[in-house]
Amino acid sequence: MFPNDELTLEAERGRNPLYKHVAKTYLWMFFGLAITFAVGMTLYASNLVFFFYSVPMLSLVLLVAQLGLVIFLSARLTKISVNACRAVFVMYSALTGITIGAVLAAYGAGVAMLAFGVSAFFFGCMAAAGLITRRDVSGFRSLVIFGLLALIVMQVINLFLRLDSFDTMICLAGVAIFLGITTYDSKKTKDLYYAFEGNQELLDKASIYSALELYLDFINLFLYLIRLLGRKK
Fold this sequence. Notes:
Elements: H1 3-15, H2 17-46, H3 48-52, H4 58-76, H5 82-107, H6 109-132, H7 141-161, H8 164-196, H9 200-229
Helix pairs in contact: 2-5, 2-8, 2-9, 4-5, 5-6, 5-9, 6-8, 6-9, 7-8, 8-9
């Protein structure tokens, strides 16, 4: 390929609505991560995270609120406005920041930075693989669900066993599963574009929904890696 051909290809990519949709999706994902880690670092640096977690049942309230927002967005995606979708995503990112603040307090900022860097590298590789592949990944949905259910069962079992070696196995399994899910969700970003092509409002909503899925993949990957790389204080 000649240099002029490469320039033409890059120009075509810049004009291609699919690439713009994918770029918008990842920008929203990065924006969500920025909010989460900004909130987490602020709470950690100011020691406010200890105040938050001194409140009885706060962890449960946070979990319920986060699950509620995800369920609400999934169920009402086609009915609520684009701005409402964005508001739900921003709220979820901010709430997750409280959890990240607790993680920073437990493991330290140094280990968190290392885990973030490793997560970013692996996530980037698998997300790129999902964008490049032309293979139909819809058949992997059942495998993804099975992997997540198996991971949950393993974690529940270890609540009773409390074995360090088993926890390491869980973390390794979690990293592997969410790397696979990252590729699946990255490819699904393109699939949703083709599904809603021609309807800009639905495309904007799909962009936020895909950003949330990729955001969750990164956060879970980060949480499993920080457990592997560091020890609680």
